[in-house]
Each structure stands twice: as structure tokens, then as C-alpha cells.
Design brief:
This protein has 112 residues and is of the alpha+beta class. The protein has one domain: Bit1 (3-Layer(aba) Sandwich). It contains 4 helices and 5 strands; from the N terminus they run E-H-H-E-H-E-E-H-E. The chain has helices spanning 15-31, 35-42, 56-68, 99-106; strands at 2-8, 48-53, 73-77, 89-97, 110-111. It is globular. Keywords: Hydrolase. One of its GO terms (cellular component) is cytosol. It catalyses: an N-acyl-L-alpha-aminoacyl-tRNA + H2O = an N-acyl-L-amino acid + a tRNA + H(+).
């Protein structure tokens, strides 16, 4: 069981901004996950992985594939108060879910 955060690198966010956006994605996806999956994930050390994509189009394609597999997800849209424009899509939070299921979509992504 794990969660995966997919971060857009084309936005050139700072490290702190990326961390905050990943936190939003993690909590958002967690809230949409079934209690059974949450319990299993909590018993397996709360694994999280952060990967990267180079564009919004890549991020949205991953979201589409995740949604087709009925995996919980959360698309983070920034308020635009600091580094990036309002309504920028920054991160896709995925899961928690079984590693193998998430890896079908994210397994080829590079780590951030």
C-alpha cells in the first residue's frame, strides 16, 4: 500500500511550495479513500512516493488513468498567493491503494 504524489516540474515551484502542495494532495486523496484501504495503509507504515511530470497534459493523462481504475485521487489547484498563478494545477495525489494497482499507471515515472 502506498500513496503517490505526482508533481509538475514545469511550474518551477520552490522546494517548500512543492512540499506544501504534496501535503494538500496527500490529505485530499486520503479523504477520498475507503476506510478499509486506509486501515491497511496505516498498518503498512504510510508509504508515500513523490514523482514528477513535465506538463499539465501529462498530469491530466495520469489522472484519467487513475480515475478509470477507481483509485482515489485529489487534484491540487493552487490559490496563487505566492509563487505561481491562481488556479494552477500543481500536484496529483493518488491513493493510498495497492502498490501494484498504482504502479500500473505511475510505475514508469521518475522520482522527484
Amino acid at each position: 500500500m502506498k500513496q503517490v504524489m505526482v508533481v509538475r516540474t514545469d511550474l518551477k515551484m520552490g522546494k517548500g511550495k512543492i512540499a506544501a502542495q504534496c501535503c494538500h494532495g496527500s490529505i485530499g486523496a486520503y479523504k477520498r479513500t475507503s476506510p478499509e484501504k486506509i486501515k491497511k495503509w496505516e498498518n503498512e507504515a504510510y508509504a508515500k512516493v513523490v514523482c514528477k511530470v513535465g506538463s499539465l497534459d501529462e498530469l491530466l493523462e495520469i489522472k484519467k488513468q487513475i480515475a478509470q481504475r477507481n483509485i482515489s485521487y485529489y487534484l491540487v489547484v493552487d490559490a496563487g498567493r505566492t509563487q505561481i498563478p491562481t488556479s494552477s494545477v500543481t500536484v496529483l495525489g493518488i491513493g493510498p491503494d495497492e502498490d501494484e494497482i498504482i504502479d500500473e499507471v505511475t510505475g514508469d515515472l521518475k522520482l522527484l
